[in-house]
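Dear support,

I submitted the protein below through the web form. The confirmation email said the job was done, but the results page showed an empty box. After a refresh the structure appeared. I'm attaching both so you can tell me whether what I see now is the final result or a partial one.
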Amino acid sequence: MCLLLAGCGSHAPRPTAAVVIREALGRQPGPPHRNRYSQLRVSLGAAYYVGTVLKTTNGRWGNEPTSYTYQWQRCNELGKACANITGETRKRYKITSADLGHTLLAVVTAHNASGEASEASAPTGAVLSPLPMGVPGNWTLKFADEFNDTSLNESVWTPGWYGKGISSEINNVCLSSALVSEPGDGYLHLKLVAQQNTCPTSSTDKSGLVTLPYTGSLVSSNPSDGVPGHVGFQYTYGYIEWRVYLPAVSPGHIANWPATWSVGHPPWPSNGENDTFEGLAGGLACFHFQEPGHTFGGAPGDCASGHYTGWHTFGSDWQPGVVTYYYDGAQVGRIAMGITSTPQYPIMNIGTGSPGGSTSVPSEILVDYVRVWQ
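What the results page shows now:
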């Protein structure tokens, strides 16, 4: 039998650790069995990071198994004292912050009508803290959400703008908490649908209402949004990075108006707004920094060349007096005017209409992770 762990869906180095158990000649009736001869083979130099996705194969078995089940285990740094990770019973496993310093393995159980048998893979190397993609420096991870749970962590994120349910208008859509989900597949889902709703035009004055033909979604970590039980998260200076899946309205052109950004507390824009990424007209991926001297549409920034539909990584390095922007680990721009210094909180959302790209509904963006280093 052969079990293979392979890293996928991450910019970290891909692991190639494997257990190979050579198959003995001949078969005997009975339950599935592993073969008598085994060889441990571990690739030197492989690294395993928070956010890496591991997969296991079924392996090779005697007595023709009819089905397989899986269980991921967390072990100590030596690959010993392993214990089941609750609920992790699929072929894939996305490494979480709880795995830092530990090793991991997969146990595969083969079944047939006569019974079952189990075998474990080799353990991975010890899990390391992730680093920004392509950005050198002595970074320390301060915040991360890998979206591995089966529901949104609402102590950090509010699924709406200063409230839940149908909340305020942002980017030409009313926002609905019902369109935000974290279903346990390793991603945050933010949806946009053709559904008419009426919502406030302001987060502070709920009396002004607008009816809009589209409903979108947003999550915010604003510590001061007034939602009960919401603690939130904000930071001053450092590197923030998202890995996001963006739908296309046509090949290479981003649909709608998705964005990953952060903003200071009101009044806007006195305390700054850092648009690490937003999809704008022409289906382009763009960055801006809103500051006190500029209003909507007039902030310094630019759009990156190339196509950014599908999976991409968007980051910005906010330092005193300057913000540098990185897409897929490559620097795409730098802004050194009007950079504010007060704390900002991360936001992710999807809207539509001008100045965004062409509308395509129903649609959704997926967020693999958001991380902040200092």
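Response: this is the final, complete result; the empty box was a page-load delay. The chain has two domains: 2-128, 141-373.
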